[in-house]
């Protein structure tokens, strides 16, 4: 049957094109209140309302009314009550204006015209020309994006990132002393502890979180080409730089005093680079945990994972949480990298490439949030198999070669004789072959080491050769 004969699905608006609004909607839904088109329009309304209120409060425009507290509350309620009906109304206005920010302006003016129905006598209908005064669309947009991205980061993404890093740190502390065979280049290497290796990843994640917590969110409101041209010619007696700077800071943002028509988006590029770096560290965690699962060091708790395992091989519990995270982190990083690279460039004083690019911000955050959630749940479903790790260590006595040759060097430096060529002698014993405990002890016993050194080495096993690993976990905050 040709696919042209299939029942069309596009007519059903509940069928999503992408996975974030379909299969994974429930897991990324918290971002909708921050990074959706509706959230952006609500933020635009917020900026327009606060700009109007700010102008009247600082007396920037002679003759402008002084708003009562009831009138300010009425205006702010326009933002607070922005819901499904208002979203639909704004959509209808935009269908006529073919301009999203102009539609917001007209929507607000409608509410001001109707203010008397709620407030009785009011100056709001006459004050409608204050709406969007001295603003280009980008004045509203840059501030709205900064507000919504900031809230998405602080209220949704950072709490999730802290939760997964805390989960890794908890597992690290719990297994700070659990010995594990290390693998460098995939080959058996000097033993570590599971906790120390997890602590490394927790520390890396927390460094990136700390960077993101310090990232700035910039904004500007300075007119069509960043010169305050219309402001200065219309109301020359007002210090418009001071008015603009105070307004941006009133919104909780950092004022950018030098821009073209657009705020330069450098802060966004910096933020997305930091988010992508966090993603990549988390990706490293996911691949390492996947490998530990394949080695039998972690056993997955089927009930905790919420998985049936393989569809055909009933013995399997697939590490799908970590595989799903890998894929979503890669998608997120691709988008974040693209945003970081493209948003810092705008042709001359303005082009609209950023307008299209910024519509993918929510998608980039969504794939990251989805991955973070999967890793968090995946970690919660792991049991540590210390016996498997101990068995691997017992089968790899050759990893003590580093300890023996280093002790020989130190003893030789201290004056012991017969300590020449330690590396070469250990290489002859260990390279390319398995060494038993008996083999290693016999080798140590024939070296002629000082008694105290020999006794230390003869007491050493792969399980106990973990150095400061347990102590190092204490560096986690």
From TrEMBL:
GO molecular function: (S)-2-(5-amino-1-(5-phospho-D-ribosyl)imidazole-4-carboxamido) succinate lyase (fumarate-forming) activity; N6-(1,2-dicarboxyethyl)AMP AMP-lyase (fumarate-forming) activity
EC number: 4.3.2.2
Keywords: Lyase, Purine biosynthesis
Family annotation (InterPro entries): Fumarase/histidase_N, Fumarate_lyase_CS, Fumarate_lyase_fam, Fumarate_lyase_N, L-Aspartase-like, Pur_lyase, PurB_bact, PurB_C
Ranges where the Fumarate lyase N-terminal domain occurs: 22-325
One Gene Ontology term from the biological process aspect of the record: 'de novo' AMP biosynthetic process
Pathway in which the depicted protein is active: Purine metabolism; IMP biosynthesis via de novo pathway; 5-amino-1-(5-phospho-D-ribosyl)imidazole-4-carboxamide from 5-amino-1-(5-phospho-D-ribosyl)imidazole-4-carboxylate: step 2/2; Purine metabolism; AMP biosynthesis via de novo pathway; AMP from IMP: step 2/2
Catalytic activity: (2S)-2-[5-amino-1-(5-phospho-beta-D-ribosyl)imidazole-4-carboxamido]succinate = 5-amino-1-(5-phospho-beta-D-ribosyl)imidazole-4-carboxamide + fumarate; N(6)-(1,2-dicarboxyethyl)-AMP = fumarate + AMP
One protein family per Pfam: Lyase_1
Residue span(s) of domain Adenylosuccinate lyase PurB C-terminal: 346-466
Role this protein plays: Catalyzes two reactions in de novo purine nucleotide biosynthesis. Catalyzes the breakdown of 5-aminoimidazole- (N-succinylocarboxamide) ribotide (SAICAR or 2-[5-amino-1-(5-phospho-beta-D-ribosyl)imidazole-4-carboxamido]succinate) to 5-aminoimidazole-4-carboxamide ribotide (AICAR or 5-amino-1-(5-phospho-beta-D-ribosyl)imidazole-4-carboxamide) and fumarate, and of adenylosuccinate (ADS or N(6)-(1,2-dicarboxyethyl)-AMP) to adenosine monophosphate (AMP) and fumarate.
Family: Belongs to the lyase 1 family. Adenylosuccinate lyase subfamily.
Protein name: Adenylosuccinate lyase
Species whose genome carries this gene: Serinibacter salmoneus
């Amino acid at each position: 049957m040709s696919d042209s004969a299939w029942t069309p699905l596009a007519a059903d608006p509940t069928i999503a094109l992408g996975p974030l609004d379909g299969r994974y909607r429930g897991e990324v839904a918290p971002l909708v209140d921050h990074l959706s088109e509706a959230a952006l329009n609500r933020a635009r309304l917020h900026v327009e309302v606060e700009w109007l209120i700010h102008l009247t409060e600082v007396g920037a425009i002679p003759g402008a009314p002084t708003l009562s507290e009831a009138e300010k509350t009425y205006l702010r309620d326009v933002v607070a009550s922005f819901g499904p009906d208002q979203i639909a109304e704004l959509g209808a206005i935009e269908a006529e204006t073919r301009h999203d920010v102009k539609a917001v302006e007209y929507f607000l003016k409608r509410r001001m015209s109707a203010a008397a129905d709620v407030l009785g006598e009011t100056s709001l209908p006459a004050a409608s020309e204050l709406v969007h005064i001295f603003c280009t669309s980008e004045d509203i947009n840059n501030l709205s994006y900064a507000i919504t991205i900031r809230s998405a980061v602080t209220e949704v993404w950072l709490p999730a990132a802290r939760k997964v890093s805390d989960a890794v740190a908890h597992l690290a502390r719990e297994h700070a002393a659990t010995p594990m065979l290390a693998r460098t280049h995939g080959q058996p290497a000097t033993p570590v502890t599971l906790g120390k290796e997890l602590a490394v990843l927790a520390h890396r994640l927390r460094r990136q979180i700390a960077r993101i917590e310090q990232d700035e969110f910039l904004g500007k409101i300075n007119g069509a080409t960043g010169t305050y041209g219309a402001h200065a010619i219309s109301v020359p007696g007002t210090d418009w730089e001071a008015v603009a700077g105070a307004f941006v800071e009133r919104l909780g943002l950092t004022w950018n005093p030098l821009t073209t028509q657009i705020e330069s988006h450098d802060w966004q590029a910096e933020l997305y680079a930091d988010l992508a770096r966090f993603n990549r560290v988390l990706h490293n965690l996911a691949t390492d945990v996947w490998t530990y699962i394949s080695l039998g060091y972690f056993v997955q708790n089927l009930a905790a994972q919420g998985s049936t395992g393989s569809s055909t091989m009933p013995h399997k519990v697939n590490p799908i949480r970590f595989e799903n995270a890998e894929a979503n982190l890669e998608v997120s990083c691709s988008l974040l990298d693209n945003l970081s690279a493209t948003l810092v460039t705008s042709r001359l004083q303005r082009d609209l490439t950023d307008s299209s690019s910024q519509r993918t911000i929510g998608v980039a955050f969504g794939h990251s949030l989805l991955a973070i959630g999967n890793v968090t749940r995946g970690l919660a479903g792991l049991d540590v198999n210390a016996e498997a790790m101990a068995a691997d260590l017992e089968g790899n006595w050759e990893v003590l070669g580093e300890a023996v040759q280093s002790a020989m060097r130190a003893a030789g430096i201290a004056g012991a004789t017969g300590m020449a060529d330690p590396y070469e002698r250990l290489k002859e014993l260990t390279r390319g072959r398995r060494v038993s405990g008996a083999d290693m002890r016999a080798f140590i016993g024939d070296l002629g080491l000082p008694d105290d050194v020999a006794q230390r080495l003869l007491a050493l096993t792969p399980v106990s050769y973990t150095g400061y690993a347990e102590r190092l976990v204490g560096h986690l905050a």
